[in-house]
Write a structure and sequence with these properties.
alpha/beta; Rossmann fold; five-stranded parallel β-sheet; 5 strands; globular; GDSL_Est/Lipase; SGNH_hydro_sf; Carbohydrate esterase family 16 protein; signal
Length: 274
């Protein structure tokens, strides 16, 4: 085969159409519903209209990675739901209608898990989970069998996993209004949660040799910006509102402008997979 033709074929394969099933909470949600418009060329996130119903308005990291920070056509099924905990039976969400990670997985099972061959294939599909913020925020609880979810995904053909740890929400304006002891306790619990996540991701990889895993360290990404906000174009580490130089969109969620950095970070971690 001619060398230049081989390079073209390899480039075409690298940039082939990819699929993304995303799970999480308000840091990830775009308001997608399984009975709405499906993702397609020209509308890669399906429903609702872009950028969707995000926590602070505007694009979030899923929007950016799907439409900007990628090397492929990415069709994203974003099952994340605002307020989600790992399991509503373990940590009660703020409203009973909130879809926990358990509920989101069941939605995937009912709607997409058994459409693997006609819709998605193991090699070209990413599964991401960013969960734990509300588990910690609501009760400082570390429960939830994430191992069981990972095994389930493997059973239905998932092979590429992106996990995201919990950011330093102890530094959010909401928590800065609380006592220093509450902030210190939350920081300690976050560190424990993130440490366990790292161990479990390593275990998943060890137990499934055909699985590829990535971890986006959101905690480090947030910390880098909050420690030196002006270096990233933000006014400070505590103000919240809707302006290009504001990191926090409200007192608990980063702004769309912050999410632009997150999208770039995630794309770098994935190394061109999508």
């Amino acid at each position: 085969m001619f060398p230049h033709l081989l390079l073209l074929l390899l480039a075409a394969k690298a940039n082939a159409q990819k699929y993304w099933f995303s799970f999480g909470d308000s840091y990830t949600q775009t308001g997608f519903v399984t009975n709405g418009t499906e993702p397609a060329v020209g509308n890669p996130l399906g429903n609702p209209p872009y950028p969707g119903y995000t926590a602070t308005g505007g694009q979030n990291w899923v929007d950016y990675v799907t439409t900007v920070d990628n090397t492929s056509l990415v069709l994203t099924y974003n099952l994340a739901y605002g307020g989600a905990t790992i399991s509503a039976e373990l940590v009660t969400p703020y409203e009973p209608t909130v879809l926990s990670l358990t509920d989101q997985v069941n939605e995937f099972l009912d709607s997409y898990a058994f459409m693997r061959e006609p819709l998605w294939e193991s090699a070209d599909t990413l599964f991401s989970v960013w969960i734990g913020i509300n588990d910690i925020g609501n009760s400082y609880y570390l429960g939830g069998d994430r191992d069981a979810y990972a095994d389930f995904f493997c059973d239905v053909g998932a092979r590429n996993f992106l996990f995201v740890n919990v950011p330093p929400i102890d530094r959010s304006p909401l928590m800065l209004a609380q006592s220093t002891s509450a902030q210190a306790l939350e920081k300690s619990v976050i560190e424990g949660f993130n440490s366990k996540l790292t161990v479990r991701v390593a275990s998943l990889k060890a137990n499934h040799s055909d699985v590829t895993t990535w971890i986006w360290d959101s905690n480090a990404a947030f910390t880098a910006i909050l420690d030196d906000p002006t270096c990233y174009g933000f006014e400070d580490a505590t103000t919240y509102g809707d302006a290009p130089d504001i990191f926090w969109g409200n007192n608990y969620h980063p702004s769309s402008y912050a999410h632009a950095y997150f999208g770039q970070d995630v794309a770098a971690v994935l190394g061109g997979f999508i």
